[in-house]
Amino acid sequence: MSQESPVVVVGGGLAGSACALALAGRGQRVTLIEASAMLGGRVASIQLPGIERPIDNGQHVAFRIYGRFLQLLATCEARDIIKLQKQTKLPYLEVEKGTISTIRSGNLPPPNHLSASLLNVSFLKLGDKIAMQKVVKELYKMDENRRRGLDDTTFLDWLRNSGQTERSITRFWDPLVRTTLNIDSSQASAASAAFIFKRGLFGEADAFDVGSFAKDLSKSLSPALRRTLASAGVEVQVSTPVTSLYREAGRVTGVTTRDGMIAASTVILCTPSSVTARLLTGSGASVASHEVADRLAGLGNTARIAIHAFHEGPILPAGTHFVSCCDEPIIQTLFDRSAELDDGERGGLPGHWMSVLVSYADPYLDWDDELIQNEYERVIETAFPQAPGIVSFHVIRNKHATTSLRIGAQRLRPDPLDAGEGVILGGDWIDIDWPSTMEGASRAGLTAAAALLEQRGNAEFRGWKHDSEWPDWPEAPRRGAEGWREW
Ligand SMILES: Cc1cc2nc3c(=O)[nH]c(=O)nc-3n(C[C@H](O)[C@H](O)[C@H](O)COP(=O)(O)OP(=O)(O)OC[C@H]3O[C@@H](n4cnc5c(N)ncnc54)[C@H](O)[C@@H]3O)c2cc1C
């Protein structure tokens, strides 16, 4: 197919949208094809029975270290949908006691910016804290070869070998691994888990400033992406599932939809891993494509369960917008979603909105709603005996929420050009170290775009890596950056 045909990006989640925008900004003709009616992919709201307005498919949390995702929002003039903490504050709830103590960033440089508050929190004992200090330094100093070499070790084994106490594992290390990698430490690749702590929590003083969505997920993100893609000249086709890749003489030269074939100079797949594997193994697919599909199947996914409880009034103390619940396998974190939302965004809710994201929810997928509600009520009634009652309660199960980062995952994650056939890979599962997150997706999309530009001889993108800035994109916001909302 000639260079005159557009680049076809399949999948309009964050990866596909970032990829399409980045390519259009470098003069490429791009068509973006999305199966559903909205852009934004897994960052979505859905309609629940009995509720007037759409509700998050699951709580979505950003961090200040999500530089590329925040830059994507800035490119789309959508800075206002996120509010970032002015200072890292991670509150922990001891459910039995009903007490909250908070890890917060102080004035010391990383990796010691959390040390002073860590010494004061009540949910860890002095012995836990002393052992943790040693590991914090080790993670901070760990070089990249050593980190990537830990892919066959579970993070739990690594923590135990590093002298961590069981309490610090269950109350500090494991909950953070679950939230960020969506898998528990007994299965997580130590390479992936170490990345989170080395680059994230202990890497930079402001890295873990939490970012909350102040608006509806789909209603704010999808129109902003569509508007920006259109003004960049990207042709967007929504409600158009790609059914197969079109191959001629060993090369993919287009995609097939129910409306026919769309010719492409290059096809970039930013679809979920299972869909990508199916498209890569269509009739006439190359050995390399089959190998990538096998690797994606080997990676697999892990689940998340979203709980939305609407109460007669607020649960958490004023000024506390979320808490991590110590020693709770299901009700891991409580978010006051009503407090996060802007005033004008609360219309149509049946009550005060509390949201729980159950990470690595695979063991609980077959629990019925009543059992999950019992767990929720037990935690709320124990920690907050005066809590206002529940008006309505909903459970959403996302079986394939994220790519699984079990041991050995790093080896299975493909590079953008691994499938050959003229196809480029760009979903949140490609090998960019970042876990399957909004930031991972944004970086994956840019990595795919850079791979194509390099192929097309653009010297600016020779050897481009996702840690490099994308030329022309606005800066990622440091604390106090103009135009960004903080709280
Ligand atoms: C419940 C839940 C909670 C989460 N919480 C967080 C969080 O707190 N923080 C965080 O950073 N991340 C979170 N994530 C993960 C994050 O949402 C994803 O990692 C990220 O959005 C993935 O982006 P993506 O573009 O790679 O893939 P997707 O968002 O899955 O986008 C792929 C797109 O491809 C489309 N598509 C599929 N098949 C076809 C086809 N045949 N033809 C055309 N298009 C197709 C899909 O409709 C979709 O729009 C969460 C995910 C879930 C499910």
Describe this structure in words.
There is one protein chain. With 487 residues, the protein is an alpha/beta fold. The chain has 15 helices and 21 strands. Among the domains are: 195 residues, FAD/NAD(P)-binding domain, CATH 3.50.50.60; 96 residues. The longest helix is centred in the last third of the chain and has 18 residues. The strands form five sheets. It has a seven-stranded mixed β-sheet. Strands 10-2-1-14-20 form a five-stranded parallel β-sheet, covered by helices on one side. Strands 5-9-6-21 form a four-stranded mixed β-sheet, with no helix packed on it. α1 runs parallel beside α15, α4 crosses α8 and α6 packs across α8. Helix content is 33%, strand content 21%. Flavin-adenine dinucleotide binds next to α1, β15, β19 and α15. InterPro entries: Amino_oxidase (IPR002937), FAD/NAD-bd_sf (IPR036188), SQase_HpnE (IPR017830), Zeta_carotene_desat/Oxidored (IPR050464). Pfam families: Amino_oxidase. One of its GO terms (molecular function) is oxidoreductase activity. This is Squalene-associated FAD-dependent desaturase.
